[in-house]
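step=encode ok
step=design start
structure_in=
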């Protein structure tokens, strides 16, 4: 996905940083503002997060609004609640999986199948996009603790380079 979007911003690396930030956090463009869900985000707050001047945020928004394809994507984004850090407070487990190849199909399916075989319910699964993350990961939040004997099994799953249990 990012490689197609990057073409629009090839001549403007600072705008590309802003666009990548918008995608990463599911921030949408609507009229002249950026929103996280229904919460308006200031240009200066986005600029600080992206490490650019606030005018770059404004020009990135304008670039997106002017192009029909970019506008179609960036006006539809939604933020996602990531439960990894909160899992232990809820009595759940969080698994972080580093894939050998993030483009390999079936990594999530294989791990989910093993977890289901132990009759553990998955509350959330989030896969980072390989084009938006330097080292994309898979996060699986389970409704109950993952038993110790399942960990080596999961580590041996096809496509798993590393696995961390939180």
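sequence_out=
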């Amino acid at each position: 996905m990012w490689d197609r979007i990057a073409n629009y911003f090839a001549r403007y690396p600072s705008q590309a940083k802003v666009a990548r930030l918008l995608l990463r956090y599911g921030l949408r463009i609507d009229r002249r503002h950026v929103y996280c869900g229904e919460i308006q985000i200031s240009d200066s707050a986005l600029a600080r997060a992206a490490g650019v001047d606030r005018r770059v945020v404004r020009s990135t928004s304008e670039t997106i609004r002017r192009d029909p394809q970019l506008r179609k994507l960036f006006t539809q984004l939604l933020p996602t609640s990531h439960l990894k850090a909160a899992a232990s407070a809820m009595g759940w487990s969080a698994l972080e999986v580093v894939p050998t190849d993030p483009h390999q199909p079936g990594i999530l399916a294989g791990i989910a199948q093993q977890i289901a075989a132990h009759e553990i319910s998955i509350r959330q699964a989030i896969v980072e996009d390989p084009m938006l993350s330097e080292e994309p990961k898979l996060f699986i939040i389970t409704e109950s603790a993952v038993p110790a004997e399942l960990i080596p099994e999961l580590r041996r799953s096809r496509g798993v380079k590393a696995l961390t249990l939180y």
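step=design ok
step=annotate ok -> The helical segments are 2-8, 13-25, 43-50, 54-66, 68-74, 107-117, 150-155.
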